[in-house]
Amino acid sequence: MIDKILEANKEYSLFSGVKNITVAVSGGADSVALLHALNSIKDDFGFSLTVAHYNHGIRGEEADRDMVFVGRFASSLGLPFVTEKGDAPGYSVKKGVSLETAARDLRYDFLNRVNTGVIATAHNANDNAETVIFNMARGASLNGVCGIPPKRDNIIRPLIFCDRETIEKYCRQNGLPFVTDSTNLLDDCSRNIIRHKVIPVLAEINPACIENVSKMCRNLNKDAAFLDSQAEAEFRKRIKNSKLTVKDFSQLPENIAKRIIILFFKHIFGVLPDMYHIERIYDVIIGRIPKTSVSRDKSAVCKNGCLFFDDAQRKDRTFSTEINRFTYEDFRKLKNVHDLLSINAVDCDKIIGDVRLIEKSGSDTVKLVGRGVTKTVKQLMTEKKIPLEYRKNLPIIADDGGIVWIYGIGVAERVKTDKSTKVVLYFNSRLL
To answer: Which of 242, 373, 391, 399 lies most in the core, judged by the most C-beta atoms within 10 Å?
Structure first.
């Protein structure tokens, strides 16, 4: 395993100029093996180690057990230990993000606050393959199938060439204890399903699938690096303060042009844009649309051969909403009853109390027909790409049990019509 770490260092200069490494240790086999391995080579490279553990406040006593375990393991190696306990479930509700996103945000915030050099995480070749498969399943560009970067900003991933089997073997050979996160054993999220079901099937097709995905990512990263360098050079020619010259932009290869958009967006806002905004900004530049909203108060606009982000001057749109009552037989005679962009229907007998229009709240949740999962209104609006100017006044109907219907998105599973439905409530909205 250490050979793989040294190979990653040789290819990506992980330890070059590094004086201190803050090692993120959860207590699992991967992070325990990483810490032990780095401790065994630290004198050869001249860096010191700090052990960091974040308790997300998700798993109760089990999480507290892990925190104690990591502290004792760090002490056994004579290494400094820092820890902190947070509230990922509360943060998730407050910010309207998934629990996984909340946990990651809080963890990296903690790591960056305690870090004095670089941060080492225990992402390995299996994690990399899972990420690639997940990105492919939801639709990804070249960067999406390049996998987890071995080095980015102040984060290094020394185990990126090591598969899980090699890591567990290293733990056995060195008598290293570790703990198991019980949530990793459940098929309750996409990553765990890929880990427990998809990867084993791929391994039946080719036992070397993890290694081969790793090789593919290394090759694709080289391609991506070349394209990035070309885009960076072109970007430097075109950037001037807060504007980007877009003369002859349509003559650039599209993959270079969109990389320039990414660089410009990050230059202005300090974060990377999502694929939707990249496509929309590109459409603005080549003249397909006049402008596009990129945040609550900014729009991408092209004037006099330059792209810039102007104050959006957003005017919230308003709607008219009607609620009609039909027998199920009469309802079935209507045209376009399944048009989710404007109308929907629910079973009247499944309504709890009275129905009413409510104001949007990003933290309100609903389980839609056919979705199988509960999501916040904010998440659903983002997924459906509802324009910002529609969101404040988007019609939402609720009863005493919660949300029943959201315009342009759909109806709640609990009130859907079926063969037993006798009376239908029929919603119809239009823009004013």
So the answer is: 399
